[in-house]
Model the fold of this input.
Amino acid sequence: MVNVGIVGAGIRGHMYAQSLAGFPGAKVVAVCDLDPQAARKVADEFGLAAFTDHRAMLERGGLDAVIVATPDFAHREVAVDAARSGAHLLLEKPLAMTAEDCRAISEAVREAGVQCMVGFENRWNPAIRRIHDLSAAGELGQVLTQNILLSNTYYVPTRMIPWAARSSPAWFLMSHTVDAALWIADKPVTSVFASGSRGRLAELGVDTWDVVHALLTFGDGTTANLTSTWVLPESSPSIIDFQYKVVGSRSAVDVDLQDQGFRQAGGSYTWPGLLGGEIDGRLQGPPTWMAQSFVSALAEGRPVGPGLDQGTLVTDVVLAVLESLRTGGVVPLAAPSAA
Done:
């Protein structure tokens, strides 16, 4: 049995607790949040011990794994302390928002001899996995270019996440698409050029980027074009717009993940999607399957992944995107060192 503690009792922390409730081989036993009411709410719903200090949760002992579901900027301290306690880690993406924090987390994990999964949940998205499998099998041929759009309505930065001003579409959304592009291309990024705009969200009290475009160039000269925005109208049928196109030398794939073929009209016109919700009382969808994969691998003694190297690589690319936005120039990236 893998005993799990969760740090962060917001939307994601609650989702992880629900995803693992009753799942074979795993038992969530504790939850921690700086907000005592948030911690108590999740604890009461799932029968967990509640904490407001992650160190107290770790000192209680008995945890085989810790899920870090804190905001983008708040991973390092919890992850390092959890690793040093001997717990395996599932960290929300991005691994961290600075190279220094990535190094600190990586060093703590390796010194402790524990495992770390970074939460790139789209590796459990059936459509993205299918594209990856086609590429890995050679059915696409050489991947020549990828065009990926992942955006949210205003709801996300203005009401869903209170810390949006400390993040951006690049961190919150593009870390997903950078990981997917690298996973499918299976080759290193050598340079990044980015452009974007800001101002509209700042007018609403959230001083961050409205729109970010990034061009990734790989070592063989092929490319990936990524776009993420936080300024879609709230009247949009879904809070998420996700579209993925891949062109290879042998074939191409075009996937519209926005409505997933399900549209509902009534008081309003919505695209509620199919990758979520419950079946027979159990939560479904990519983040749920990711969490279940994590605990199953630990229970069976298998390695978990994507891990530290991929998490660090994605952070490096997003940092290059932000540097290009700042300077207006192309930012070169060094080839990743051998593990």
